[in-house]
Structure formats: structure tokens, C-alpha cells
Design brief:
It is a single chain. The chain is of the alpha+beta class. It is 48% helix and 20% strand. It is built from 13 helices and 14 strands. The strands form three sheets. Strands 5, 6, 7, 8, 9, 10 and 11 form a seven-stranded mixed sheet that branches. Strands 12-3-2-14 form a four-stranded antiparallel sheet. Strands 1-13-4 form a three-stranded antiparallel sheet. Helix 2 runs antiparallel to helix 12. It starts with a helix and ends with a helix.
Amino acid sequence: MFLNYLKIAWAVFNRRRFFTFVNLFGITFTLAILMAGVAMLDHVFGPTPPEVNHDRTLLVMRVNLWLENEDGSVSSSTSGLAGLNLLQETLYDLPGAETAAITKSAWRVQSYVGSKKISSFLKYTDQYFWDAIRFEFLEGRPYTMDEVTNADHVCVINDATREKYFGDSPAAGRDIEIDGVKYRVIGVVENVPFVRQVSFSDIYMPLTLDPEYNKTKRLAGMCTGIVVAQNKSKFPMIREEFLHRIEQIDLSEYGNFNHIAAIPETLLEQASRLFFGSGGKGTKFHTEKVIGFFVFVMVMFMILPAMNMVNLNVSRIMERASEIGIRKSFGAPSTTLVGQFIVENLLLTLAGGILGILVAYGILGFISFTGWIPYATFTLNWRIYSLAILMTLFFGLVSGVYPAWKMSRMKPVDALRGGIS
């Protein structure tokens, strides 16, 4: 039976080539754009090397400080990235954590190789950064606790920076000059895409080399705390202990504030709070709203081409009314005809899905080639393939069920006359 469906579907596609082309174009274009967009989002929020512990990583990024009066009104407030002092007092040795690290946001520095000016991103980190973010070292090693404690002039660079300074030659053990100061290169790592802001940089140096290191006591600053949990079930324990430590901070040492809010959260939770801020102590997350928003956008993007396919399929039924009437007159049950039509539609959408994957590969390859996003190499993975299958089924069912239902209601006499009752 199914083999007959395939043969009939192939004959129909060949007979109505323009209809087949229009449907395939709509499916392919829609799925390709959606898959390319989802692949870029996955590149930001999904587990991608070197952030291989992404699914069990919590970030302390934002901190809110405010002065609350006795009547409940707020006199002053500030918010921003976490400060070094806040993270030093609260982040390390949290129960349920495998490791924790502190890093400062990357910022631009300038250097020269001969007369050639090189602009690079520099990130300061502690020694635990290399345990939290699992880089693959192409040369050398990360800096150690002693090198951080002693503020040794050492650095780790990415492969692109190695090429700018030394061409194809090894870099480990050689010196580079940044803003007029020399540093010894002790390691070379793979390039990290710009969209992975927690791990991205061209040059990495010990946190103690930062000119602002412990210069002033601040709870808000330019730092990010990274907590890698033993497993995701430890998230509540880590958050509870972190909040307890936050409450113990003596705010009188840090300015005119009497309330502070910060919490370890996943990158998706951080994004959800930016879109659907919870205020107050900031312990509520809205990840389901963010996911729901992306799903809604995807469905809306697919609805229009799906509705166009419904209209085309209804028109195709009208053109095949005589065929349907004859088959019904010879006893073909409605379920057989409906099954045939849905199979035809699913085959068409499956072909569009395969073409969509190929086109999405081309789009992502082009974006990667242009270098619009530094070091980004966008690809498709099993998560994107799974979503592509779901979107293909969505197209096939949404655009096929209603026309199939119309077919099932067609009476043989009306069908032979070319009409639908």
C-alpha cells in the first residue's frame, strides 16, 4: 500500500511540476531561514567548545544596589556587571560547585609589530578560569596560581593573535608587547567566537595584572563569576548559599546603599531577566517566556507559507476531483484517499526540509566566511536537525490535514462533476 502511495505521489509531482516547484520553494526558503536563525541562537546559548560545561554552568553577571528608605521608597540605585570584591567574597567554595572562576569583560588594547598596528581584545581572569572553561591548548599551558598571585607578566593568546604576531612560527616562550609593556606567551588556544562573551578574547592575562585590581572596593564593576556545578541538581543549593553570603556583606563599606541583589543564573535565565525583569531581589526566572517567545515567532513565520500550501493543496484536490470520484465509485474508502494525500504532502515537505538544510548550510557558511562575527563558524548539529524534523512535520500536517479532510467529504457524484460538497 505504501509503495503504491509513493508511486502515485511521484507521478503527481511530475505531472504538476510548477505546483511542486512553488511548494518546494516555499518550504525550502522558510525552513532554511528558520534553521539558520536557530543555529545562530544555538551558537550563543548551546554547549559549544570550549564551554563544554555550559549545561551545568551558572553565571553571576549582574548586580543591583539600591537605597531603600524607611517608607519603602528608593532614593538611589545602580546596576551593572558584578564587581571583583563581590565575587571574591561570595563565589569560591560554594557547596555543590565543582569549580568557580572570575573573569573581567574583554576590552580593546593596541600593539605594534614593526609598523603594523594590531588591535586585540584582552581579558583578565583568575587561575580557575581554565578549569571552568575547557580550552584546547594548541601550544603551552595556562597560567598557574603562583603566576596569578605574583602578578607575573605572562599571557595566553588565541591562534589568530599568534598568527598576527608570529606568522606560522610557534609562540610559546616568546614575548609580545601590549600598550608598551612586554608579556611572555605561555600558551596558545583555539579561537573562540565573539558571541561567546564569557570565554571570548584574543589575549588572556592574570587578573592581578589589571590596573584596577583591588584599587577600589566596589560591588559593581566589569566582572563575571562562573560557577560550574557538579550537576544541574545542585543549582538550588548553590543559589541558596550564594544568597546567604550576599546577605552577610557589610554594605556600609561600599557606599550609600542598604540593599543588594545578585544571583547565579544560566545564560538563558540571564537573557530572560533582561527581557522580563523581575526586579526586587531578582530570584525569579522567566525562561519559559523566552522559549515561548521564540516558539511563537517560529510558528508565526511558518503559518503564512503553510496557509499558502493549504490553498494550493485545496486547488490540487479540485483538479483531481475526477480521479477521486472514480476511485470512490470503485469502492476506495475515504481513509485510503486521505492517507495517500497526507503521504504525498509529507513527501513534498520532507524534500523541502532536505533542501532547506542544504540552503541553511550555505547561508551559515556564507556568514562564517564573511567574518561579520569574529571567529564564528556556524554549523548545524543534532539539535538543529531535530528541530528541522519537527518543522517539516508541522508543515506537512498543517498544510495537509485540512485538504485531506475536504477530500474525505467529497461525494463521488460531486467529485465526478468537479465540485466539493
